[in-house]
Amino acid sequence: MNTQLLTTKQAAEYLGLSAAFLEKDRWAGAKVPFVKLGSRSIRYRIADLETYIESRVFLSTSQYKGA
Fold first, then answer.
1. Fewest Cβ atoms closer than 10 Å to its Cβ: which of 14, 51, 61, 64?
2. 19: domain CATH number?
């Protein structure tokens, strides 16, 4: 399995978000899946980021209430 892992900063850039958003997301229950390697190393798989992006696609503003 050849899975590229991104740091929090790289994942944030990939998503067009801030690293602080991803850090807060992890504390709040992680809507964006992450991989924990060791005691302090957090990484993100590109496939998980793509799945997250796809889950955030809406056709109307009324669709995302509570999403």
1. 61
2. 1.10.10
